[in-house]
Amino acid sequence: MERAEMEANRNKEQIVDVRSVVEAVSANDNGAPLYQVESLCMRCGENGITRFLLTLIPHFRKILLSAFECPHCGERNNEVQFAGEILPRGCCYHLEVPSGDPKMLNRQVVKSESATIKIPELDFEIPPEAQRGSLSTVEGILLRAADELQALQEDRKKVNPQTAEAIDKFLLKLKACATGDSPFTFILDDPAGNSFIENPFAPSTDPSLIIRFYERTPEQQASLGYLVDPLHLEDHRDGASAEEMGGASDEVRREPHGSVGATAAHRAIAHSNSAEIVETMFKYSAPEEVMTFPSTCGGCASRCETRMFVTHIPYFQEVIVMASICDACGYRSSELKPGGRIPEKGKRISVTVNNVNDLSRDIIKSDTAGVKIPELDLELASGTLGGVVTTVEGLITKISESLERVHGFTFGDSLDESKRNKWQEFKAKLNKLLSLEEPWTLILDDALANSFVAPVTEDIKDDLQLAFEEYERSWEQNEELGLNDIDTSSADAAYNSTDTKMGEKSEV
Fold first, then answer.
1. I need a surface site. Which of 178, 202, 203, 340 has the fewest CB within 10 A?
2. pLDDT value of position 440
3. Contact 410, 420 (CB under 8 A)
4. pLDDT of the residue at 100
């Protein structure tokens, strides 16, 4: 009896309240212990136990695992929640799964509560509401989807036999994909950017996996809980009408803060139209003149001011420099956007790093630029690290910090010894680049030609270590950038008619 009472008291001491768990998990960055919280069972109404564990998935990020178990009725469930923030851009993973390859089906998959999974070959989609916050494999997700469809088949056969028969045929195809008998494409699309498919070849590229980062639409912003202007939602769905445009212009004139040019530029930035930003800037202000407009702090959501101006970088193009400082929390951010029209060709920049002066070269890496270092067999897809203005040394440092933070060189209980040694060796090689023990090559591949590496000579033609190569974009690249859907025929016709009228007037 005494031993039973001691065990009961010990269990009571291990159970803490939810607030204590949140505070402990938030304060402990080096692996929080397992916490237990007494919570209500939704099936029988009795109290069960929920266990929380903060852990790190190798090659991904920190997550909070929660598992509930009721000793009274046996109810059990688990969920994955992200310990970090919503990422600035959404992500889309395309995984080509061939038939007869079980290793592909064993890849780890993290599906957040905002992610959608699609299999085009089956015309099948798992919405965000289904399997939300799940940590599984490709095979596990497909089998779980099949089990959920199979669960109500007996009732369907009684109510609607035709639908039940169609679902039975579909389940055969779905299970054939889950067992590796049929090839298929596994697409994971997450506007929050918090989903993940394992790359067993990391840090090298995976020939079967394509990762794409994209800007969220106003509807996706609203679905994630962001405050979105209803006018932006209407403009994105149907386009703005003439009356709405007139009302917007009146609102601009009544704007008490800043100037008309600052407000117009603010609207252009919200629509991510670089050409319109440059045109607005030069229309309402002179080059190098700093403009100010109100914005919201990304750290504390307080009102702050963003300053920007247009400048020209020699041997490059016009760019827009933006900087924000929050007086409430001290948050600072800076960004550089390219200006002008979309180039007809992409650009590949190669620089050979031989000495300290090469490490000090200024670099502009846009959002659409990928990074390659052939000596390390390292390749970063376009969108990785976002748009940055730094130096060669700073870029390598950012890559190292990002890999250590996101991938985890020596963290994670599930990371075996061979993979841990592989990551440690790769980090050592990455650090050797900055010591200049051997020459190495840095390649920036930008489909929109908005990246730049500064020369170390007065004339860029005299810099023999720097090479620029223009190339025709592929259809896939134009599709990813949204250029295939652009129709300029109406604008071309208008310009041609204007030129014709001007020619006729000059002849008269």
1. 340
2. 92
3. yes
4. 85
Amino acid letter, residue 498 = T
What topology is assigned to 342-409+418-487 in CATH? Jelly Rolls (2.60.120)
Instruction: Region of 274 please: left (phi>0), alpha (psi -120 to 50) or beta.
Output: alpha
H helices within 85-179, ranges in order?
A: 102-105, 138-150, 153-159, 161-178
Contact 310, 287 (CB under 8 A): yes
Apex CA 455: angle with CA 453 and CA 461, to 5°?
A: 115
Write down the pLDDT at residue 415. 59
Question: Structure tokens of 205?
Answer: 């590229």
Q: Is 12 helix (H, G, I), strand (E, B) or coil?
A: helix
**Spatial CA neighbour of 174 closest among 124, 239, 233:** 124
- Each residue of 316-365: pLDDT tens digit? 777 777 888 888 888 877 777 777 677 888 899 999 999 888 898 888 88
Quick one: fold of 90-224? Jelly Rolls (2.60.120)
Write down the domain spans for the chain.
30-81, 90-224, 287-340, 342-409+418-487
The angle formed by the CA atoms of residues 464, 465 and 470, to the nearest 5 degrees, is 90
Token digits of residue 84: 């970090």
Overall average pLDDT of the 163-173 stretch: 89
**109 in Cβ contact with 91 (< 8 Å):** no
Compute how many other C-beta atoms are within 10 angstroms of the C-beta atom of residue 106: 13
Cα separation, 51 vs 21, whole angstroms: 10
**b/e per residue 39-68 (b: at least 16 CB within 10 A):** eebeeeeeebbbebebbbbbbbbbbbbbeb
Q: What is the CATH number of domain 287-340?
A: 2.20.25.420
Mean per-residue pLDDT for 387-416? Answer: 71
**Contact (Cβ atoms closer than 8 angstroms) between residue 224 and residue 216:** yes
Count of positions (residues) in the chain:
508
Q: Would you say the CATH fold of 342-409+418-487 matches that of 90-224?
A: yes
**Chain segment 174-188, per-residue pLDDT in tens:** 999 998 889 999 999
Tokens of 338: 């390219």
Q: CA 259, CA 267: separation in Å to the nearest integer? A: 13
pLDDT at 272 over 80: no
Spatial contact of 452 and 366, defined as CB atoms under 8 Å apart: no
Whether residue 255 is predicted with pLDDT greater than 70 in this model: the reply is: no
**Cβ-contact 248, 229 below 8 angstroms:** no
Joined together, the tokens standing for residue 125 give: 């989609």
Q: Report which DSSP code applies to 165.
A: H
Backbone angles phi, psi at 247, to 5 degrees: -65, -35
Token pair, residue 472, equals: 């025709």
Digit-coded pLDDT (tens) for 35-74: 788 888 888 888 998 888 877 665 455 677 788 889 999 8
pLDDT (0 to 100) of residue 350: 93
